[in-house]
């Protein structure tokens, strides 16, 4: 694919009042490489700076926990809940900005999927429903998930305020925006999902009720950071523990979800699908990206098997996405954007190249970090 055929991928775009030099973003990816107490390391700063140096216009952080209660999902996950954690992120922001890219923090509460929390051994979720599947061995988990305790109203209120306070911390650290993690089976997605949310109060039952918590978080975050600071949300159907999940009412449910997000005033919606270019429901029909653009009426970021530059460009031009985020292909090519722009060959992503027997994903990601492109 010639450079002239990638005119959209390498054109500028604005999220709120923040301008990105191109439409290539680094996808948020769990790394579990922080210090045990949630502080960010110099190696992490170098890791994120590598992608900025490699031409990515936007860098998105791994999911970062928001309180010292139940939000942490994995041991060695970074936090943004304290002043010390906030200060530790400043070196990451400075390193990325020095390379000319923008950086957005992803704020995460793991909910019932927490498998490594140094503050609590119990988990909390919308209902006492055991998550499907097993804990992720890549991140140190073992066996089935435990049955979570149902969040009380007071705990829900605390959860909302923790998201807001963490967003304020991210702004103080110098980030260019925040992404509220409402995808992949974590707590906001647990409230949205019919089978994990069995509540009979204002947060359960209808789609309107099940998305209520996400909207409350967006509202509280906006009140803390103001109207000029970009605030977005990540949404998916698939979960880390249930890859095949689909919204029960298909396009009608998608329209209701994205319309509600549009009314909330988010500056972007980040769609995460296993195949971003595939029909959202069944064998035919629109992609979730197209439905988000139609009903969300805001900047749409797309993630999911877009490591081929031609596929990324096509999704921008044909499905209405405004930005694409790259995951596995970025780990194999920290200069993916520069290579794509110059029509250079890309390294193939191969787990076996990095993962030795009994190795963990942490080992893999550290090895990826050390690749200098």
From TrEMBL:
<dbReference type="InterPro" id="IPR045247">
    <property type="entry name" value="Oye-like"/>
</dbReference>
<dbReference type="InterPro" id="IPR013785">
    <property type="entry name" value="Aldolase_TIM"/>
</dbReference>
<dbReference type="InterPro" id="IPR001155">
    <property type="entry name" value="OxRdtase_FMN_N"/>
</dbReference>
<feature type="domain" description="NADH:flavin oxidoreductase/NADH oxidase N-terminal">
    <location>
        <begin position="9"/>
        <end position="346"/>
    </location>
</feature>
<dbReference type="Pfam" id="PF00724">
    <property type="entry name" value="Oxidored_FMN"/>
</dbReference>
<dbReference type="GO" id="GO:0016491">
    <property type="term" value="F:oxidoreductase activity"/>
</dbReference>
<dbReference type="GO" id="GO:0010181">
    <property type="term" value="F:FMN binding"/>
</dbReference>
<protein>
    <submittedName>
        <fullName>NADH-dependent flavin oxidoreductase</fullName>
    </submittedName>
</protein>
